[in-house]
Amino acid sequence: MVRKKRGISRHTAVRLVLAAVVLAAALIYREAGNFPFGKSSGTLHAADSGGAAKGRDGASSDSAISGALSGQAQSGLPVRGSSQPMPFVGLPPAFPEGRAPGSRISRVPVSKAKTMPAATQKSAVPKNVYLTFDDGPSAVTPKVLEILRREQVKATFFVLGDQAETRPELINAIWEQGNVIGNHTYNHNYKDLYSGFTHFWSQIKKTEEIIRQITGVRPQLVRAPGGTYGHFDDTYFHLMKQAGYLATDWTVDSGDSARRGVPAAEILKNSVQGTQSSRVVLLLHDGAGHQASAKALPEIIKKYKAAGYVFKTLDASSEPVQFKAHPGKGAAKRTKPDEAWIAANITPKPPYLRQENRWQW
Ligand SMILES: [Zn+2]
Fold first, then answer.
1. Would you give the end-to-end CA distance of the chain in angstroms?
2. Maximum distance among all alpha carbons in the chain?
3. What's the CA gap between 325 and 353, in Å, rounded?
4. Domains and CATH numbers, the chain
5. Pairing of β 309-312 and β 127-134
6. DSSP 8-state code for residue 308
7. In terms of CB atoms within 10 Å, which of 24, 190, 350, 353 comes out highest?
8. Distance (Å) from CA 161 to ligand 1 centroid
9. What is the DSSP letter of 307?
10. CA 193 to centroid of ligand 1, rounded, Å
């Protein structure tokens, strides 16, 4: 720069000499450890670093950890755009380990951050499927149980009292395998069951007693034959609930009882139509003549497993699937139970008492 002009003015020369003298004096002071600006600038820097990060990102342990999770703080340095600490050139470190007091970011334990997998930051919505089998037990039930055992899946069986009475060993096998047993009335006869609540009730109690004698437990779960739609009226819903029962329908119908001889391929196709939903209650049958349902079962399980579903059994704490009350034409003719009958038969029970994963009272 001094070459810009040949020769310099006397005035400029004097200024240069003065500047050189001041610089020399400063260097002498610094060597003696008295230079004030070195330390203060280091302190200021550290404070800025922490403060700036805090101001911009609201830096706390959590946000620092989230930065660490994205790979920015593996070295323990500030995260997300905060300035890197300036090196203390020619000076002893102002603080051991190069950290300043109050610098919160540099204190984030990196080992802790490393133990938190990124996947926990955003967990997927769980998808549950409940396999339910109605109308058994029958000769089909052992095959269904064998498949469930092999696939390590549990299901809910809504059994009929008259079938349970003649095949107690199958009720026991269902139960011993860890499946859930629900009440599907005694004889499945719509005409009787839906002629009035007292008829429905007596079948529920009769079946319940048969099941209790085999398993020791009274089922709280009930499935109305044919579903509640077109069958249950407000009295049915209200009194069943008051007595502590949970009547539950389904979200997906396998169609295996739509007519006689529904082929396994059709049952499979119907059964997996709900694999977008987070909760599927699948209606199947293990009653007499439903071999095709058992045939379709391995592939149904395979498809739901592949779609990421967890297999669960119903319990009385689940939100029940209930079709909107539509009692049908015959409901108007029903005789409603009077108060004396209700007082004598329906003992109000706190709903959904839980005992060791089995539902009873
Ligand atoms: Zn049924």
1. 98
2. 123
3. 26
4. 10-116 (no CATH), 127-359 (3.20.20.370)
5. parallel
6. T
7. 190
8. 12
9. T
10. 12
